[in-house]
Design a protein that fits this description.
- The protein has about 210 residues and is mainly alpha-helical.
- The protein is built from seven helices and two strands, in the order ααββααααα.
- The chain has a two-stranded antiparallel ribbon.
- The two termini are about 25 Å apart.
Length: about 210
């Protein structure tokens, strides 16, 4: 599925519904039972100059801090998922790479979501452990299974992609009003934490062979 098809399906279903269904299909790597909330909303999704924008307009929006924390994590994870899948699908248009692109994008989204939720819940783990988890559990096996081309692409692209995601998370936090208090601070901190993972991801990728 190409990026335009994903955007079209999201618009047809409604971005809130599509995001919720997509993220619900990911394996849960961290026990955030209290975060299994309905964060569906009305909004829009668009892409311009390779920048994906999701806008929350109205709907099931509440003033509950827990709702906003979960929604911020889900939105960021969803943007990371769609962006990763789009880059991968463009690099490997052959149908045989669809499982690889799906697994890779799901892993990146899960990583981003878990880091942000752990930040809100003050449960951030070792940066080295997170980096190794991403590579060893998901990326290493996928890259190895799909050969040298996928391996080379992954080594060059995944650290850069994570850098972009980390910067986006931090920028989002910086743009929040100071009135957001702890939510603003943790969002910025989560972006910084994602930056610390990148060297470990790069190091782990360098050890992956076909």
């Amino acid at each position: 599925m190409a990026i335009n098809e994903i955007l079209s399906e999201a618009r047809n279903k409604g971005i809130g519904v599509y995001m919720q269904q997509t993220l619900a299909a990911l394996p849960a790597h961290a026990p955030f039972q209290e975060r299994f909330l309905n964060t569906q909303f009305n909004g829009s999704i668009s892409m311009s100059n390779y920048i994906l924008t999701v806008t929350v307009t109205k709907g099931e929006v509440t003033t509950q801090v827990n709702w906003w924390q979960t929604t911020i994590a889900n939105l960021t994870a969803f943007v990371a998922l769609v962006t990763t899948y789009g880059l991968c699908a463009a690099a490997f248009p052959a149908a045989g790479f669809t499982p690889f692109c799906g697994g890779l994008s799901g892993g990146v989204a899960e990583l981003v979501k878990d880091v942000i939720l752990q930040g809100f819940d003050h449960k951030l783990a070792s940066a080295e452990e997170w980096g190794n988890t991403l590579v060893n559990v998901l990326v290493s096996a996928g890259l190895s299974a799909f050969g040298e081309a996928a391996l080379k692409w992954g080594k060059n692209t995944i650290p850069t992609l994570l850098n972009t995601v980390a910067q986006s998370v931090k920028n989002f936090g910086v743009k929040l009003s100071a009135a957001w208090g702890a939510i603003r601070g943790v969002t910025i901190e989560s972006g910084d934490y994602l930056f610390t993972i990148i060297p470990f991801v790069r190091s782990a990728l360098s050890r992956v062979v076909v």
